[in-house]
Amino acid sequence: MRNHLRTFMLLAVMTALFAGVGYVVGGAVGMAVALVFAGGMNLVSYWNADRIVLSMYRATEVDAGHPEPLIRAYVQDVHELAACANMPAPRVYVIDQDQPNAFATGRDPDHAAVAATRGLLRMLDRREIRGVMAHELAHVKHRDTLTMTITATIAGAIGALANFAFLFGGRDGEGRPTGIVGMIVMMIVAPMAAALVQMAISRGREYEADREGAEMSGDPQALASALQKIDAYARGGYVNPDAERNPATAHMFIINPLAGGGADSLFSTHPSTENRVAALMGHARRLGGRRETAVPVTAEARRIGPWS
Q: Fewer CB atoms inside 10 Å of the end CB: C or N, the chain?
């Protein structure tokens, strides 16, 4: 409830910022034009977000008939977790990338997809993979992609309005620009403030997905362990070239895939792993210890990683 309230308040801040910039531009007409422009771009992006992102990472769809036992187990667990949560089974993808990571995409539970890298499937054990995928399914269940699309729309509109203000706003009776320094400051500060709020909303949704995912899998320790392993690998100096080329997608992953993106600060898309693990351990205590779902793990369906 606290995270939902925090998200609502941050959206209200973005809306107020948007209205303030629109006022500087010249009232409701300029604000409406910018909103329609930014909203149209984000609407197209929203309806095609899953295909766009999966294409960026060259993800391959897999199913329960895949020849690799590890991937068959991964698909089976995603479908089982979705069924336990009374959700439609999402499409399941694998990304041929060594960095362990995962994300969910799609506009709603009926049009969702989850993706995991081969690095994640190789490094984590089956319990931990289930914990990670439960986290991603929680994002789908809560329609976090919708929330982030709304924030992206407002942030885009703020950026457009700031540019309009610099080019067309603040002129005197003879058409000469006035307050040029203020216009430049607004052009820089307004989009930056919107981005900071957008990142704050993303961090709040990660905490909520951790909590919901832990309850979905019944195994908070598994997700905590997975986060620690993924974070340790990401901090080991490995660079994800696809993510570096597409930094706008960083907030989608369970751990920030960008080099140096691990701090819990105003400029981070994710909370610190230490804080997330502490919260998950609190969930575990409230759940009365680990309640692992009984899943047979064969030798074929399990790979031993460097932390096992």
A: N
